[in-house]
Amino acid sequence: MTKTVPAKNGVRVVVAGDRGTGKSSLIAAIASDSFPDSVLPVLPPTLLPADFFPDYVPLTIIDTSSSLEKKNKRNEELIGADVVVLTYACNDSQSFSRLSSYWFRELQKLEVGVFLCIFLA
Ligand SMILES: Nc1nc2c(ncn2[C@@H]2O[C@H](COP(=O)(O)OP(=O)(O)OP(=O)(O)O)[C@@H](O)[C@H]2O)c(=O)[nH]1
Ligand SMILES: [Mg+2]
Question: Keyword Nucleotide-binding on this protein (predicted)?
Fold first, then answer.
C-alpha cells in the first residue's frame, strides 16, 4: 500500500482583514469545529495536524492584530504566508470596499502573491 508523503513541511495561512470582521472567530471555529461565544483579540498560531487533511500537509493558521501599532508584525506574517485569507463582514459594506481600497493594495505593496477572500454569514 502506498503511504501518502507530505508535499512540503506545511502550509502557513495568515488571516487578515478589518477590525471585527471575524478573523479570530473563524480560526477558533476551524480549530474546534464550533462557533466560539468569545475569542481572544489575537489567537496564538493554530496548528492543524497533517492527519486532519487527505493530502497529509499540516496547516498553521496565523491570526493578525487590527492595531496600527502591530502593523509591522502583521506585514511580516503576510510576507511569510503561503496563503492569505482576507475577511470582511457581509453586514458592513465598508469592510467589503476596503478589500480593494486597502487590503489588495497592501498585499501588492508587500509583493504577496496568493490570496483568498472569505465571506461572513
Ligand atoms: N453573525 C456573525 N458574527 C460573527 C461571525 N464571525 C464573527 N462574528 C462576530 O463578530 C465579532 C468580531 O469577531 P472577531 O472574531 O473578534 O473579529 P476579529 O476580526 O478577530 O476582530 P479584531 O481582532 O478586533 O480585529 C464577534 O462578536 C463575533 O462573535 C460570523 O460569521 N457571523
Ligand atoms: Mg481578532
Answer: yes
Q: Is the CB of 23 under 6 A from ligand 1?
A: yes
Q: What predicted TM-score, i.e. pTM, was given to this entire model?
A: 0.90
CATH superfamily name and code, 11-120: P-loop containing nucleotide triphosphate hydrolases (3.40.50.300)
Q: CB of 20 closer than 6 A to ligand 1?
A: yes
Q: Specify the residue with its C-alpha closest to ligand 1, atom 1.
A: 121
Is 65 in a helix, a strand, or coil?
Answer: coil
Q: Report pLDDT digits (tens) over 7-61.
A: 567 899 999 999 999 999 999 999 999 999 999 999 999 999 888 788 888 999 9
Residue 6 has pLDDT above 50, yes or no: no
